[in-house]
Amino acid sequence: MKKQKKKTNNMDPFISIDFFQAGSTFFQVLILKSSLVALLAWITACAFRRSSASIRYAIWATALICLAILLPFNHLLPTWSQGLVVIPIQEATVTKADFASKSPTGVYYKQSQPLRESKHPLPVSGPTQDIHIEESTSLGSLFTVRTIFFIGACIWLLGVLVSLFNLFVHAYLTRRIARLAYQPAHIEELYQPIARRSKRVRILLSAQINMPMTWGLRNPVIIMPEEALHWPPSRYKSVLMHEYAHVIRRDYAMFIVAQLVCALYWFNPLVSIARRNLLLEQERACDDYVLSKGIQPQEYASHLLEVARIVRQKGTLLRFSVAAANRSTLKERLTAILDRSSNREGLTWAKGAVLVGLLMFAMLPLLTMTAWRTELRSNDSASQEWIMQLDAESASDRQKAAWALGELEDKNGVDALIQQLSDQDPGARGMAAWALGEIKDLRAVPALLNALTDPDAYDKERIVIALGELEDTRATSSLITILNEEALPLQEAAAWALGEIKSQSAIEALAQSIPVSSTALRVAIVEALGNSRRPGALSSLKSALHDIEPQVRQAAVKSIQKIPSPTSAQVLTESLAHHEDPAVRASSATALRYFIGSVVDQSLIHALDDEVPSVRAQSAMVLGQRGTEGAIDALIQHVRDADHTVRSNAAWALDEINLD
User: Fold this and answer.
1) How far is CA 448 from CA 96, 421, 433, 456, 507, in A?
2) Model pLDDT, residue 573
3) Which sequence spans correspond to the domains of the chain?
4) Rounded to whole angstroms, what are the CA distances from 243 to 8, 39, 257, 551?
């Protein structure tokens, strides 16, 4: 188990570093990447300023779609670093001064204790709870950085919620208008201006609006004001064709994306500009569609001006609908309508796909770029100091140095620690083995295997543990030999290490050693098989359920529970129903809490009728923890069980089962 460390502040430096890196990435997306994408779209749109509005609309739409995808899926994208800014953060360091009054003394390895109870024991003796870990960063206090990121994230989230609430209100009002709109008796006259109209499009009239608008995704609706029935036929035709262009272009879907992107990037003015340009080109593309149907530019412009005048006098525009005479873009639209040299060519699906693909390819470097990055830097001077200390004359100093390098998990010290495996002092050798296990550098495996010839039993125990920590299959054969030939403490260590390695040969060796082992070793082997989490270990664990020693049987139940397999549930249900040991049946009920399925539920319900009260009580508790509704009748019966614990557990389980 890792020891507790006293720090200069109340914060784990590595958690803080992770927080800093996550916050840095988050704000890069919000600020830098969104701005670069918007700028690239603006530059591309300027390059295509003499092209049609449909092409420029596709450019802005691609940019906003990229921004919509970027924020939630940024962590899935590959990254590359431009290296414009590097923010260094130092690792925690252990200094020699920290051991002035708290240094471990004596040789730890002369203390014998069961290894399976502490699979990762701290290899120092004496008081360690007050050892000081020095922390520093080039930015000052990481607590301050954490606070800044937290406040910034809260402000951003508040802005998002306000923006989304505003959009929700407008969407609700627009939907209410659509639901209250109606179809007049002379409905055919409303559709007459639309040639080859879509059957999915409905045209409705509303007394609550003064401007035509389009609303809806799956079932689009064109809502016209009631007074549109009294408009001149040319105006009605022009305006209706404009709204119909929104429908066939599916502009409403992109309109929603643009609104949501602006809500997420509400603080970035460049994103708002991108949305405005998208809506402008959207309207201009629909204008081009109307003009392509033979409507004269001067006539169409006069109709738009008249509709805009009505809106200015009588009402405002809802934000969650696509409207024909949006005043914010009217000037630019009129200029383009009256410009006879404007390109009014529509965008085909083929051209659109090619354009969007090229734009996505151009934006990919921006989406994956990391302009500033945090760099975790080890304190090389401190590490080098401890490496040099490995050559100290005092064996105690060499042990301290090995411990510090292991605590730092500094791979720069691996070579020196490997050399220390041949130190004359057994304590220094054992400490070096422990440190190599902590660092987990596979370069140490051959040296540790060679060191298994160490004459000191305690050093050999540490070496075995280190090999288990490294989880390298090259150690399997040597560990199997120790399991079969050495004394009990080393056998227990080897069993644990083989369980950590999890190779098939390791599982087979553990299984074969169960029948010929002592009770303590059988428990260690059974626990190791469970730690392997390999379904192949279930047959051996099933046999261990019938071991003559109760502690082995209990260990087998716990190990079966650890293996994520349907067979595990089957073994436990059979044990609950038929095992001769009531303690095993009760433990099996407890273990079944972590498995799902109706078979498990039925097994627990049947166990409520077990002759042993402890089995009934445990089954009732697990049914309550699982919230099994099918157990209600059986639990009600056991509220009046002869055993007090069963009654209490049944009543508690009924209270836990939620019928909502």
Assistant:
1) 27, 8, 7, 14, 22
2) 93
3) 180-342, 565-660
4) 66, 30, 19, 78
- The reported pLDDT for the residue numbered 24 is 58
Q: What is the C-alpha to C-alpha distance for residues 577 and 439, in angstroms, rounded to an integer?
A: 46
The CATH T-level fold of domain 565-660 is Leucine-rich Repeat Variant (1.25.10)
Q: What is the DSSP letter of 213?
A: E
Q: Cα separation of 378 and 446, whole Å?
A: 26
Amino acid at 233: P
User: 106's torsion region: left (phi>0), alpha (psi -120 to 50) or beta?
Assistant: left
Distance of alpha carbon 641 from alpha carbon 542, whole angstroms:
32
Side-chain-side CA neighbours of 589 within 13 Å: the count stands at: 31
Q: What per-residue confidence (pLDDT) applies to 219?
A: 83
Who wins on pLDDT, 130 or 68? 68
Alpha carbons 405 and 390: distance in angstroms, whole number: 10
pLDDT at 369: 62
Q: How far apart are CA 472 and CA 475, in angstroms?
A: 6
Look at residue 267 in the predicted model and tell me its pLDDT: 87
Residue 423 backbone phi and psi in degrees, to 5: -60, 150
CA-to-CA distance for 505 and 498, rounded, in angstroms? Answer: 9
Highest mean pLDDT among 201-205, 225-229, 464-468: 464-468
**Is 0.70 topped by the overall pTM?**
no
Query: Does 139 score more than 50 pLDDT?
Result: no
